[in-house]
């Protein structure tokens, strides 16, 4: 029997009710903003009867009912003529574009580059001429292997891609947080990425290198060994995008007005220092907050704590290149900072979040070949290959050669050319002449070449036969891996060993595990022994090396995270677990000390509504205990009442909060009421110098000052029995 519809059942209150409109107006910054292109109806907004902006179709037709499709009878079929329904579903069906084949998961922000030292004597690049001048920038950080929806704390390289909208065109430095790469020739890139991505028959594992195919490829690719040291180090599990380095990786050239060139390597150095998490912590963060890194960047910018990096340059000439132990065109090698110091010439600040993730972070198109007059490539065969790949991939991903018309990709400087048409062309050249040369005269003839200011390649005279060959000068695969390993502090070396054992323990074929250990023998005998022991393997023979590894390269402090720690808690986050009845004065003192240290705090309480403190005031909570595990914080403190503390001592999530913080070598503040929790976790006899008693308000300042080293690594041998 047909049911008679009632008006109430058939419709929902429109979301643009005046109440919703008022609420939206009070949080304007979170409202979506659509910038309609000029001249396409965007200047004025259609107003609905209740005074708010009218919902329209994409054709601009005002919509009367967005809740129900058009039917023949209340329970009848939907009609083809429902153009609003069809347009809405059609558009939804086509919302996805192919994700990036690598670096699919990323997060971007806007900011600026400011020059602090002029390079006018070295390069004619406009961006490097005038001290104090700012250039708009967009930066996208990423993981490499995982797909778009993967988690942030994968063990992986991080992309660090910077688009600089200079006055002479867009310059992209498409770099990573690690200064070397797995391979020397772009020819091997598809193999490397196939091996790292989920195995093709089963479609897993996602966002991890801990599987047979990856280590099979790597163990057959000795040139990867230097990179293996870096990705097995804590560099591959950064605490935040804000606390990691960036590198241009390849050697580039800076070119002056006379065409003279200087070699250059680009470095981004974080103002807040380097920091990483522990592996066991990374695994748990991925469950607790898969968006940990993007949320961190979003929150820091929102709070006005703008992430900042210094731009550093290693500049050198042909004589240095000729005398250097390795080939400067080999992207598996660094130039130690002790050999060529990093000269700081500017700063990069990220001060604006994206308005729309898709429009900006997803559609931004970085291309290594986006360089500007005054910058040039070298013959690094990895870079040369990349120069083909990036333009090609944008066509696939964004679907049209007109991706430069998208606001995030468009130059900010004036531009003029004769390129036209194509899918989604938004601005074709005006006028009659769309070719060159033409004789229509300056006014309507369109743009002309500029031999003075235009981009010129460095004049080079390549010599030799046409060959498919790897140069002899690329043959040393181990020496810099040794140098990296000996530059690490003991705790960092231990983490490298742990990471190798973990990764290789997920490899099913013992011969692959063994082949990797045979490479490690060319890097460090103790490391190889530790890994073999951890895997339960007999130590194999060392791998045959094309060039005998050197052990005389001096350690470089710049390669260690711990040696470059910030010695400050600024920009970090304390997790403060409180219960009802807790000491309000002590809590206020901790909050004030954290604020003074330029750091952040999150309150965790048994209920998200907050805790009623001893003085009767309610302290709002950011997280409920199981929503705010200690892995999300750099350090933790707990302040409870006797009653609340007893409850914590019985609560599994509260016990995890403390035991994890302890296991991850965090500094811990233990306020009143925490005895039951400490004994409930069995840690009473283990508390060490990284644990601080917070008895009264006066203790808060000393506690927060003590957080500066970020971790109490001395604890690790006690909590990790492999140590
Ligand atoms: Fe990339 N890389 N890459 N890469 N790469 C891409 O371009 C490629 C390499 C890097 O946030 C792709 O737009 C080849 C080194 C970053 O949008 C693709 C080779 C370094 C990003 C591509 C390399 C990088 C990419 C996929 C070997 C550090 C993300 C989507 C020759 C210096 C940019 C895209 C963003 C992205 C190709 C090696 C950094 C397919 C062929 C070395 C940060 O074009």
From TrEMBL:
Keywords: Heme, Hydrogen peroxide, Iron, Metal-binding, Oxidoreductase, Peroxidase. PROSITE patterns: CATALASE_1, CATALASE_2, CATALASE_3. Residues 7-27 have a biased composition (Low complexity). The keyword Metal-binding applies. Pfam families: Catalase, Catalase-rel, Catalase_C. GO terms for cellular component: cytosol. Gene3D superfamilies: 1.20.1370.20, 3.40.50.880, Catalase core domain (2.40.180.10). Its cofactor is heme. It catalyses: 2 H2O2 = O2 + 2 H2O. Heme binds at residues 100, 140, 189, 386, 390, 397. Its EC number is 1.11.1.6. The active site is at residues 103, 176. The keyword Transcription regulation does not apply. Residues 56-444 form the Catalase core domain. GO terms for biological process: hydrogen peroxide catabolic process; response to oxidative stress. One of its GO terms (molecular function) is catalase activity. Residues 1-45, 441-462 are annotated as: Disordered. InterPro entries: Catalase (IPR018028), Catalase_AS (IPR024708), Catalase_clade2 (IPR024712), Catalase_clade2_helical (IPR043156), Catalase_core (IPR011614), Catalase_haem_BS (IPR002226), Catalase_immune_responsive (IPR010582), Catalase_large_C (IPR041399). Belongs to the catalase family. HPII subfamily. Decomposes hydrogen peroxide into water and oxygen; serves to protect cells from the toxic effects of hydrogen peroxide. This is Catalase. It comes from Sphingobium baderi.
């Amino acid at each position: 029997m047909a049911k008679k519809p009632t008006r109430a059942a058939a419709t929902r209150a429109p979301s643009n009710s005046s109440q919703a409109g008022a609420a939206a107006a009070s949080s304007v910054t979170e409202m979506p903003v659509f910038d309609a292109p000029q001249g396409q109806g965007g200047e004025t907004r259609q107003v609905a009867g209740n005074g708010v902006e009218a919902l329209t179709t994409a054709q601009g037709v005002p919509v009367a009912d967005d809740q129900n499709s058009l039917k023949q009878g209340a329970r009848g079929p939907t009609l083809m003529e429902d153009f609003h329904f069809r347009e809405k579903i059609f558009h939804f069906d086509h919302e996805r574009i192919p994700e990036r084949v690598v670096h699919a998961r990323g997060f971007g922000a806007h900011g600026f580059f400011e020059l602090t030292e002029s390079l006018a004597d070295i390069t004619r690049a406009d961006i490097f001429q005038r001290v104090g001048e700012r250039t708009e920038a967009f930066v996208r950080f990423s993981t490499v292997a995982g797909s778009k929806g993967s988690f942030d704390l994968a063990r992986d390289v991080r992309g660090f891609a910077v688009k600089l909208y200079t006055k002479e065109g867009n310059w992209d430095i498409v770099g990573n947080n690690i200064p070397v790469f797995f391979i020397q020739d772009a020819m091997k890139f598809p193999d490397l990425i196939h091996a790292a991505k989920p195995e093709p028959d089963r479609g897993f594992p996602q966002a991890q290198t801990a599987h047979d195919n990856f280590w099979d490829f790597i163990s057959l690719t000795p040139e990867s060994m230097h990179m293996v040291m870096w990705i097995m180090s804590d560099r591959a599990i950064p605490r935040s995008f804000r606390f990691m380095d960036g590198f241009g990786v390849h050697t580039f050239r800076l070119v002056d007005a006379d065409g003279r060139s200087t070699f250059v390597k680009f470095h981004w150095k974080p103002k807040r220092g380097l920091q990483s998490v522990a592996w066991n912590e990374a695994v748990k963060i991925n469950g607790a907050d898969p968006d940990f890194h993007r949320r961190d960047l979003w929150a820091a910018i929102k709070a006005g704590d703008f992430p900042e990096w210094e731009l550093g340059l290693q500049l050198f000439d042909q004589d240095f290149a000729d005398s250097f132990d390795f080939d400067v065109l080999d992207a598996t090698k660094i130039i130690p900072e002790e050999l060529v110091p990093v000269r700081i010439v500017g700063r990069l600040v990220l001060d604006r979040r994206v308005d729309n993730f898709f429009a900006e972070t997803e559609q931004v198109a970085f291309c290594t070949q986006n360089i500007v007059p005054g910058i040039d490539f070298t013959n690094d065969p990895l870079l040369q290959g990349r120069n083909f790949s990036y333009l090609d991939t944008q066509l696939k991903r964004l679907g049209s050669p007109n991706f430069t018309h998208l606001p995030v990709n468009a130059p900010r400087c004036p531009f003029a050319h004769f390129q036209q048409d194509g899918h989604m062309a938004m601005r074709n050249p005006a006028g009659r002449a769309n070719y060159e040369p033409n004789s229509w005269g300056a006014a309507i003839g369109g743009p002309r070449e500029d031999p003075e200011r235009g981009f010129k390649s460095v004049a080079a005279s390549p010599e030799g036969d046409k060959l498919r060959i790897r140069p002899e000068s690329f043959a040393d695969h181990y020496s810099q891996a040794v140098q990296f390993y000996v530059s690490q502090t003991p705790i960092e070396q231990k983490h490298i060993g742990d990471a190798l054992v973990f990764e290789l323990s997920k490899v099913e074929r013992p011969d692959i595990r063994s082949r990797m250990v045979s490479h490690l023998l060319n890097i460090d005998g103790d490391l190889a022994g530790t890994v073999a022991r951890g895997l339960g393997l007999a130590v194999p023979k060392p791998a045959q090396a094309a060039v005998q590894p050197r052990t005389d390269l001096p350690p470089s402090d710049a390669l260690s995270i711990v040696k470059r720690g910030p010695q400050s808690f600024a920009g970090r986050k304390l997790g403060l677990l409180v219960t009802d009845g807790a000491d309000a004065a002590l809590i206020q003192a901790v909050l004030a000390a954290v604020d003074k240290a330029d750091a952040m705090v999150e309150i965790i309480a048994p209920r998200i509504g907050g805790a009623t403190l001893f003085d009767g005031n309610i302290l709002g909570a950011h997280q409920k205990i199981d929503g705010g595990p200690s892995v999300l914080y750099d350090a933790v403190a707990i302040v409870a009442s006797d009653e609340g503390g007893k409850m914590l001592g019985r609560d599994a999530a509260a016990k995890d909060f403390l035991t994890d913080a302890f296991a991850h070598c965090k500094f811990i503040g233990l306020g009143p009421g925490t005895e039951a929790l400490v004994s409930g976790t069995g840690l009473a006899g283990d508390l060490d110098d990284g644990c601080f008693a917070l008895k009264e308000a006066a203790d808060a300042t000393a506690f927060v000052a003590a957080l500066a080293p970020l971790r109490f690594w001395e604890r690790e041998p006690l909590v990790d029995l492999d140590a």
